[in-house]
Amino acid sequence: PTITDYQHFFLPVLQRLSNVEYLTLLLVVGLEGIRPNHFIDGFDLEKNIISYMPHLREFHFHIRSILKNPSHVEIKTIRQSFIQYQQQSVDCVIDYFHDNYGQCQIYSLPFIGTRLDFISNRFPLFDTNKTFSMVTKLLLYDDIQPFESSFFERVSRALPHLRTLDVMNGLEQQEKKKTTTNNLEFINLTTLILFDIHLDYAEQLLCRTHLPCLVELAIDNDILLEIMTRDQQQAKDNCSRVETLRTWKPFYHSVDVLENFFPPYSYVKHPDEEKMKNK
């Protein structure tokens, strides 16, 4: 869950659980509401949680803390805060974006989560230990570097169980001319979200990728129309099984234009369309 007031609401509740022996925390801290003034680290966990639980035997966690206009912190500083965790492996990732936000993700190993959010090119998705191989839901975000074709190829290998992919990146791919083959495949992907993207990512994932299980597509209107105009066979094949099609804005074109790509009745009206209809 997203914690809007970590310090004054969440921690006092947790600190009352003095008899807990097994604890799992999957948290986002600072997304909205009252944000902490620093990234959550090992010192915070020891001082504010572990010290209140004398019977604690196992503690698994994945905590993503978000700061606006953060001071720069070296990753080794966060790692050193976990030196006291001799009985457990822990790792972390820090990322800074051009939109003035920064985030730090700390997680126990083996990784227990099935969801990763706001993952950039700099996140260590592709380690040899297959740390994140059980992830089923992935949100990719980067406003510093584009996601190149090679990045998606590595994602498909690193996350074989991926079912939901959400891409947010407005930067044009730089290596797209080097890739003309359609050998990329996400065999278990059922949901693809392409609202806030450059056209290149729709071309990458709909025109040059095999998505045999895709049943839900959410996409920007203009990009959808551009993909349909190109009438590319791989895109038509990927869209032919879509049961739910959603668009970023109301789709004022006739739904008849969707017939060559999508099954009948797959389009779900945008909420604003219903509002205008009821006026």
Description:
The chain has 279 residues and is of the alpha/beta class. It folds into two domains: 1-111, no CATH class; 114-272, Leucine-rich repeat, LRR (right-handed beta-alpha superhelix) (Alpha-Beta Horseshoe). Helix content is 23%, strand content 29%. The chain has helices at 6-14, 42-48, 75-80, 149-158, 199-207, 221-230, 233-239, 271-277, and strands spanning 2-5, 22-34, 58-68, 89-96, 101-109, 115-119, 137-141, 164-169, 184-185, 191-197, 209-210, 216-219, 244-247. The strands form three sheets. Strands 6-7-8-10-12-13 form a six-stranded parallel sheet. Helix 4 (149-158) links the parallel strand 7 (137-141) and strand 8. Helix 5 (199-207) packs across helix 6 (221-230) and helix 5 (199-207) packs across helix 7 (233-239). The relative contact order is 0.08.
Task: Spell out the key features of this protein.
279 residues; alpha/beta; Leucine-rich repeat, LRR (right-handed beta-alpha superhelix); 2 domains; 5-stranded mixed β-sheet
